[in-house]
Amino acid sequence: MDMENQKIPQATAKRLPLYYRFINNLHNQGKLRVSSKELSEAVKVDSATIRRDFSYFGALGKKGYGYNVEHLLTFFRKTLDQDETTNVALIGVGNLGTAFLNYNFTKNNNTKIDVAFDADKSRVGENVGGVAIKHVDDLEENMDNISVAILTVPASVAQGIADRLVAAGISGILNFTPARITVPAYVRVHHIDLAVELQALVYFLKHYPLDVEEEDN
Fold it and tell me: Which CATH number is associated with domain 3-79?
């Protein structure tokens, strides 16, 4: 099913990779079926929400039976384009960028960092996690078949790099800098500010303590 032609809520779309990861693990364990309750406990999303999410894609399961794991896996692979490798560029090979290169996402899906760039000339030619580092001045000439970029550069240069990425034909940017970069409407940016997320977590811990009994039900 082509998600671009469906009116799928963004909140649902964001949960699909969570479902896929769990279903893939079940398949690797040889499980044949799974209930919405089991899914709920694993991904920490209530059963009603899971059933509503799945309902956007038609009849994925049967009442009283649950969901066929292999059928779900095939569906999510197609929906999330997991049969194709998405090549990613990483710009900024500092501590965070180095961690991304060493991890490189290959344990969970077919997203792969294919090339990395840094402004430090002493790092050019270095190999981190199987990825060769190139100088950021050479960014444009090394963006063939790259559709997504991870931005882990200083905030002061984030917008300039983003402009160059857009000009190079990038479709999506995962921005780990505090800068709120602006791009044309046809480019999607997801901002992930780790400091803000940590502050939000601490705030919620102080002001919205979890009801353990409620969470366990």
Answer: 1.10.10.10
* DSSP 8-state assignment for residue 176: -
Q: Which residue has the tokens 């034909």?
A: 169
d(CA 30, CA 70): 10
> Whole-angstrom Cα distance, residue 151 to residue 89?
9
CATH topology of domain 86-196: Rossmann fold (3.40.50)
For 127, phi and psi rounded to 5 degrees?
-110, 120
- One-character DSSP codes across 10-62: HHHHHHHHHHHHHHHHHHHTT--EE-HHHHHHHHT--HHHHHHHHHTTS--EE
**Per-residue pLDDT tens digits for 160-212:** 999 999 999 999 999 999 999 999 999 999 999 888 888 888 888 888 776 54
pTM over 0.70: no
